[in-house]
Amino acid sequence: MSRTKKIVLTVALSIIVLLWFADEYPALRFRGDAKFSGGPILGYQIKMRPIPFNQVGEYVFHFRGVPDEDMSLQLYAEGKSDKNREELTHVDTTLDAFLVDQNGHVECQASGMPREGQNEHIWVVMSGMEAAFWHWNCVHMPMKPSVSYTLTLRISDVDPKTPHINLLPVLEGGQLDMP
Q1: If 0-12 CB within 10 Å is exposed, 13-18 middle and 19+ buried, where does residue 5 land?
Q2: Is residue 20 pLDDT above 80, yes or no?
Q3: 170, 154, 136: which is closest to 53 by C-alpha?
Q4: What's the pLDDT score for residue 7?
Q5: What is the sign, positive or negative, of the torsion defined by CA atoms of 175, 81, 61, 113?
Q6: CA 151 to CA 36: how far, in whole Å?
Q7: Global pTM?
Q8: In this predicted structure, what is the pLDDT of residue 178?
């Protein structure tokens, strides 16, 4: 085999291996207005830029190349934990989320205020080491690597009691279910 043929064959095989790795490892194919981290064992996180909780505004994020996993949207309340549950659930600020794919299919549409309980009309505070809001309509959303997505978050009707903090939008998924 000639030297040129060996180089061409090596380059072709390298490209095939690289494409396979890119398909197997979403971090290599992810593109968009967010930071991608994680892996198939501990799960994936797609973190967008923080948005102010106490200001009216609309925030739009575009991305593609997500893992072929069910993902859930969390809005982490920066600097807050379980100790702040009362402060986070007794404000009348409206949070809206809208996740749509490139074909206009709605993956997530949520609206409501932070409250205690669980129903499709409120944002629930998940607490522990870090507090985060989640909505019943934006959990376990099946996502595909080949599809482009747009996430729009809107904060409106800001209550004066709303804490002066940022919310960190994060899509999470892919964790192994442990017994």
Answers
A1: exposed
A2: no
A3: 154
A4: 81
A5: positive
A6: 15
A7: 0.82
A8: 43
Q: Is 151 within 8 Å of 33 (Cβ atoms)?
A: no
The β-bridge partners of 171 are 46, 73
Chain Cα centroid distance, residue 91: 24
Report residue 107 as tokens: 């993956």
In whole angstroms, give the CA distance from residue 44 to residue 34: 13
* Cα R_g (the chain), whole angstroms: 20
What confidence tens digit (pLDDT) does each residue in 32-86 have? 999 998 887 788 999 999 999 999 999 999 999 999 999 999 999 999 998 999 9
For residue 97, CA distances in Å to 4, 90, 106, 156 come to 55, 20, 11, 12
Query: What letter represents residue 132's amino acid?
Result: A
Q: Nearest-CA neighbor of 30 among 82, 66, 74, 71?
A: 66
Contact (CB, 8 A) for 37 and 44: yes
For residue 159, the one-letter residue type is D
Distance from C-alpha of 159 to C-alpha of 118, rounded to nearest angstrom? 21
